[in-house]
Amino acid sequence: MSMDLAKQLYAKMPEVIAKARKKFGRGLTLAEKVLVSHADNFETQTWERGKAILALRPDRVAMQDATAQMAMLQFMQANKSQAAVPSTIHCDHLIRAEMGSEKDLLRAVDENKEVYNFLASAAKKYGIGFWKPGAGIIHQVVLENYAFPGGLIIGTDSHTPNGGGLGMLAIGVGGADAGEVMAGLPWEVLHPKLIGIRLTGKLSGWTSPKDVILYLCGLLTVKGGTNKIVEYFGPGAETISATGKGTICNMGAELGATTSVFPFDQKMVAYLNITDRADLANLAIANKSLLVADPEVFQSPEKYYDQIVEVDLSTLEPYVVGPHTPDLARPISKMAAEAKEKGYPVELKAALIGSCTNSSYEDISRSAHIAQQGLKAGLKAKAPFLVSPGSERIYHTMKRDGFLETFEKLGGTVLSNSCGPCIGQWKRADGVKGKADSIVSSFNRNFPGRNDGINETLSFLASPEVVTAYAITGDLGFDPVNQKLKGADGKEFKFQPPQGEELPAKGFAKGEEGFVAPAASGEGLTVEVPPTSERLQLLQPFPRWDGKDFEKLPLLIKTKGKTTTDHISPAGPWLKFRGHLDKISDNMFLGANNVFSSEPGKGTDVLTGESGLTMAQIARRYKAKGVGSVVVGDENYGEGSSREHAAMSPRFLNVRVVITKSFARIHETNLKKQGILALTFADPKDYEKIEQQDRISVTGLSSLAPGKPVQVTVHKTDGTALTIQANHSITEQQIAWFKAGSALNALN
Ligand code: MIC
Ligand code: SF4
User: Fold this and answer.
1) Peptide bond preceding 323: is omega within 30 degrees of 0, i.e. cis?
2) 524 CB contacts (<8 Å, ≥6 apart)?
3) If exposure means fewest CB atoms within 10 Å of the residue's CB, which of 113, 196, 274, 345 is most exposed?
4) Residues 676 and 647: beta-carbon distance below 8 Å
């Protein structure tokens, strides 16, 4: 499917790469090769890392059902007849996990009928491929079908970088970005800096690709990758399977990285071959020099990367991260002691494997090996054990090769090929709000409330094989890798390190593909949006900027600490309103900690003094009075997902300005796209000075200019005022978005 795209791309790469070598006066890293080959105009583009805005032409767009709704609603406002680049929609997020694969899928098809019909009809009309519910999780399906070395894909999901496992730049974006690219515009992104990760040695025993990224999360932290591309290289890279590389790149999203990528190698060839793309593999082999960094980069990497990290795979231990954040990392050998010391509840209430991050054949076969050892010792899973396969192919291969049976014998439940518990679409039978319990998964995120909707739950992340061992022992206070446990007969035994196969010897089994091709011509076809729908609402353009400064706006919320998009716009039960801006906006900030409230998600209407209200209630009151408001945030504000609802809801409810200590990349762009002024404190200490009753003015907006700080005046209740400076990264074009009221308005 990507053969033609790859052919065209590889034909033009040598010329632009040669030009770039000349212009930069040096060899190029892999990421640079891909970037320059996708430049909208290489000649006129400036190429300054960390400064220039790149205008790129992606080869593809991928969207998942929860974000595709807004992406398509916005795309439709551009009045185009067809998507300008090959695009696909994947139905994966809206399936609730409760009764097991078959029943869950049937229910999903019924309860999400309106949304699926909308997406299917829009896909059909606009030339977009449609993957039905049950076909698989977007990133796995992209890896199996669309990813190709050297390509550039954008996806409306932050874990799009999974495609880096096949040597492409795969980047997560908000729906507005996707809508614009489908409308034929170039895609803009800050020229990322480069982190080079040199891998040496070889993984062995318990240690798996997941541990590479868990370790790096601890080392680099959740903002260490912001506006950077993580490029892996070195002899160790070639020892990791393509799907293992996918896992590492996927979870690079947890570093805040723009994306992550591995150089083309034999492991990718093997994966392309086994997924029926031998022609593509051969083409890539013939063009290998375009798909890896230049040789001089390896000789002195420090000259080419802004930062270098060395990881010796041979000495790496299995890791466990969490709770509440993916960068709280320690080797598994230290977990039990830390759990005791910090008082984490050690009884594991659930163990979950699979997801878009970790459901490769390698992951599943290694986990099954652990499960078999447990069964042999007469044990069953102590904690509920749930398995989320990434795609139909994975599911049927697991079934054919007996892994499903093994997991089920252990007491596990196999869920549908979808996100399920990873995105809070999970009815955890024993979950009690307000009670702190521990769970462990092989997913990639563990923000509070994410899986079971309970903010107190402590969620830990580890490799699928380690999670399987935890499922059997059910105890975080016990190290299943290094300690002995008792079998059913009372005899002690130790798990042998997991063994598995990277790829199925018999090839992948095929299931029902679930792909629906678009109509040859969309003319005359209609997009189904029932006027009375509770799930879908056509968008009304946001009002244009009235040309006036923002004077004395009330503070809606000042968030404290981590404010991820899961805090700003929680998922789980709210996913069903992803196509209905008015309804979903009631979830705004429900998970966020407000400095001025003891209860998350609650605050005070400072115009009336009434407290204990949700942020949406307060903002709706202000909006009704024609009053805008300001949000103040902490570090790395908007970390996590690409969901633009975290920007659209505030915009819809009249938030005009968000001032933070720093932003995560996708969310900052999403705010700008929706016409919100995204500012950062020039002096982060000024965050402390903002008080609940302050009124905030942002002035000089008519002379808003790139690189020019903005003046913010904070009016105190005692009549005094203080002036603080705020920075921004707004470009000339983004100023036009602000003035037009949104990027989309600026298009029309
Ligand atoms: C996630 O993992 O948080 C999600 C759900 O896949 C999101 C997208 C969404 O909110 O729909 C993401 O990662 O971008
Ligand atoms: Fe789905 Fe979870 Fe992957 Fe996001 S991280 S795409 S919710 S499986």
Assistant:
1) yes
2) none
3) 113
4) yes
Q: Is the pTM of this model over 0.70?
A: yes
Q: Ligand 2 centroid vs 737 CA: distance in angstroms?
A: 30
d(C-alpha 651, C-alpha 541), whole Å: 11
Mean pLDDT of 129-142: 95
Residue 584 has which token pair?
């979903």
SS3 710: strand
CA dihedral 384, 410, 340, 214 (to 10 degrees): -90
Residues counted in the chain: 748
DSSP symbol at 184: T
Mean pLDDT of 47-68: 97
User: Rounded to whole angstroms, what are the CA distances from 470 to 171, 389, 498, 607?
Assistant: 33, 19, 13, 51
Q: Is 168 left (phi over 0), alpha (psi -120 to 50) or beta?
A: beta
Whether 397 lines ligand 2, by a CB cut-off of 6 Å, is no
CB 335 within 8 A of CB 321: no
Residue 543 is given by DSSP the state P
Report which protein residue has its CA nearest ligand 2's atom 3: 356
Answer whether 250 contacts ligand 2 (Cβ < 6 A). Answer: no
The residue among 200, 177, 199 whose CA lies nearest residue 190 is 177
Q: 526: how many CB neighbours lie within 10 A of its CB?
A: 10
Mutate to test the pocket of ligand 2, among 63, 95, 142, 157 (most ligand atoms within 8 A of CB): 157
For the record, the structure tokens of 370 come out as 């652990």
* β-strands 385-388, 413-414 pairing: parallel
Cβ-based neighbour number of residue 609 at 10 Å: 8
Using the atom order of ligand 2, give the atom closest to the CA of residue 445: 5
66 touches ligand 1 (CB under 6 Å)? yes
Amino acid identity of residue 545, one-letter, is W
Ligand 1 contacts CB of residue 590 (under 6 A): no
In sequence order, the β-bridge partners of residue 321 are 329, 461
Residue 652 carries which side chain, given as an amino acid letter?
F
Distance (Å, rounded) from C-alpha 37 to C-alpha 17? Answer: 7
Q: 641 C-alpha vs ligand 1 centroid, how far in Å? A: 5
- Confirm whether 643 is a catalytic residue: yes
At 1, the pLDDT band (50, 70, 90 cuts) reads low
> Beta strands 53-56 and 187-190: pairing type?
antiparallel
For residue range 679-723, list pLDDT tens digits in order.
999 999 999 999 999 999 999 999 999 999 999 999 999 999 999
Burial of 456 by CB count in 10 Å (0-12 exposed, 13-18 middle, 19+ buried)?
middle
| Buried/exposed 83-94: b ≥16 CB within 10 Å, e otherwise | bbbbbbbbbbbb
| CA-CA-CA-CA torsion sign (733, 738, 741, 742) | positive
Label residue 439 left, alpha or beta by phi (over 0 means left) and psi (-120 to 50 means alpha).
Answer: beta
158 CB near ligand 1 (under 6 Å): yes
Please give, one letter per residue, the 3-state secondary structure of 67-84: HHHHHHHHHHCCCCCCCC
pLDDT digits (tens, 9 = 90+) for 295-343: 999 999 999 999 999 999 999 999 999 999 999 999 999 999 999 999 9
**3-class SS shares of the chain: helix, strand, coil, % to 5:** 35, 20, 45
Ligand nearest to C-alpha 565: 1
